[in-house]
Design goal:
By secondary structure, the protein is of the alpha+beta class. Helix content is about 25%, strand content about 30%. The chain is built from two helices and nine strands. It has a five-stranded antiparallel beta sheet, sandwiched between helices. Strands 7-6-3-9 form a four-stranded mixed beta sheet, with no helix packed on it. A hairpin with a 4-residue loop joins strand 4 and strand 5. The protein is globular, with a radius of gyration of 20 Å. The relative contact order is 0.20.
Amino acid sequence: MKTWPLWIGAAIVLSLIVHILTVLLVPPSVMTLAMIRMADADADTRVLHTPPPDASARTVVRPSPDLAYSICLFDMAEGPMLVKAAVPETYWSVSAFAHNTDNFFVVNDQQVEGDTLELLIRREDDEVTGFDGIPVSFAPTDKGVVLMRMLVTDRENYLELDPVRRNATCETLTR
């Protein structure tokens, strides 16, 4: 009796199991490790403004040397989060990532009306009042990361723009 069809079938089943487990387990694991690193740097209590990236920078995965990064963590179990940031006169974006690494919100400098972004991140079942007219994004997971990026063309430009990004806030609203 030929056993090779059985071995091929077993290999296919094993490959499918490994693939499914990888897709389901790796993204949350990567985000958990990144969030632990950020929490160690106090990104869970304030906005963390990373220094200009160099070869050893790894607070942000694969950082670009042309961007200045600011990061804050959110935990919807503690309450909704209000993000405020000034929009500079250069490329700038704010992205929110769920715990499974899904990007659920993004906006850039061309899409914001005015010179300041105010964004409310909350769960579907949160009832929040007093924030009429502020864009709302619904977090698909309780924990995640808000990442702000700003284009920096040279050292002088960095020194000019750094104070602008340092005015960004991520405030957890109490329930």
